[in-house]
Amino acid sequence: MKLSLKINLLFTVIVSCILLGMTILIYNLSRSNVHQDFRQRLKTRAARAAYLYAVFRNDTTNLLKSLDANAPPTLFNKSISIYNSDYAELYEFHDLNVDELNADTTWLYKGKTEGEYFFSRNEKDICVYYNDNDKFPVIVMVAAENIAGKEYINNLKKIFIVYFPVAVLVTLIAGYLFSRTIIKPVKETISDVKLITSQNLSHRLYTGKRKDELAELNQTFNDLLNRLEESFAMEKRFISNASHELSTPLTSISSQIQVALLQSRTTAEYQKVLASVQKDVQGLHYLTRNLLEIAKAGTHGAISLEKVRLDEVLIKAHSEVLRQNEGYKVELAFPELPENENECQVFGNVHLLHSAFKNIMENGCKYSPDMKTKINLLFKGTEVEVIFSNKSDFISAEEIERLFEPFYRGPNSESKPGVGLGLTLTRRIIGLHKGSLTIQSEPDTGTLITILLPTVKK
Question: Which of 61, 110, 130, 419 has the most CB within a 10 Å radius?
């Protein structure tokens, strides 16, 4: 079932239920008011008859009958009877073609004891009223048929029976128009989404000037598309650069071997060629290893995470950097170790974290004039902060963002070894561990790289 039909039916059902409830409520209230109003008229007529009988009782019969016969027709098919306290009939009147209403002693007794008593009999409403006059108490019984009230209620019922289906039909039409209005932006979104393919990621959903949730949803989709388009562009650049970087050493190796095989050479010449080939192979090995680590860091579910002490990982990376790079200086500082071991640990992968820290240490030493990197490890309860600082040249904010692009190398790195994958790999590893990596650079103080990672305690 389509959403527009669901909205239409739901709208119709809700409005129809409200209309039905209001109809029943109005009908019951109207019937109750008509019934109460007629009873009040019966009571008023009974009180009037009791008063007149007490005033003109010497000539009551003729006078009252004359008054009752010529009274305005507020009560139809009425019967009026007056009784004394002993239930003996004193007066009786009824309209033409109306049978006399024989009173039951039980009715009179209830009227006398309760002051007034209402009931219905043979389609007539009856009021038994007791006039407690000290001189001449009487019991008056008035019966009449509420013709106007019944006609009003019947007409009201007919109106409801006729117009309720019409109201439901109008509600159904209104619900259809309402659902079309609501679903129209959704259909437009569906049409726009169908135009988006891997070859057409530049298309965006229309948001217009609306400020509702649908516009917010479209904007969210657009933000997602922006990220996807950027990711696809980065992937294309990565593949292009990787192909170029891989083909360069392979071409160099192939060319050197071909040249060496063109003619016989001395042992020294062959050794020189092999040494050059070995250097290219080592660079190719380093590049391939970085590419594999980047791919591994991009697959969240393919690595195992366990509790890792960051201080131990930093010490191990520090030792390896100094062992492999003569002249590099790396200073570690742990100002204060917490008593709770969980504040020193993170959920992570030892190999990936070791690779990330080692990359930052080597880059700091490589691009710093004094080939020195300082590291401070700070424990903040639910987070651990690792700060790398060095005296490298100033890096602008625009260039800082580009440092994380694969194979990008800054203007001051042309004479330095590397392929421009270190920070790309490091950022992916830190993101994989739900951490953050920021770079700050000042002309006088150098570069500051800050890593924040959530601890096990969090």
Answer: 130
Q: What is the pTM of this model?
A: 0.48
Residue for token pair 């008023």: 44
DSSP calls for 77-125: EEEEEEE-TT--EEEEEE-TT----PPPHHHHHHHHHHSEEEEEETTEE
CATH topology of domain 213-296: Helix Hairpins (1.10.287)
Q: CATH assignment of 3-154, given 3.30.450.20, 2.40.30.20, 3.40.50.20, 3.90.226.10? A: 3.30.450.20
Q: Say what the pLDDT of residue 30 is.
A: 92
Mind listing the pLDDT tens digit for each residue in 7-54?
888 888 898 899 899 999 999 999 999 999 999 999 988 888 888 887
Q: What is the mean pLDDT of residues 78-85?
A: 87
Closest to 365 measured CA to CA, from 406, 422, 407, 405: 422
Q: What confidence tier does 272 reach under pLDDT thresholds 50, 70, 90?
A: confident
Residue matched to tokens 């490091």: 426
Q: Name the CATH architecture for the domain at 302-454.
A: 2-Layer Sandwich (3.30)
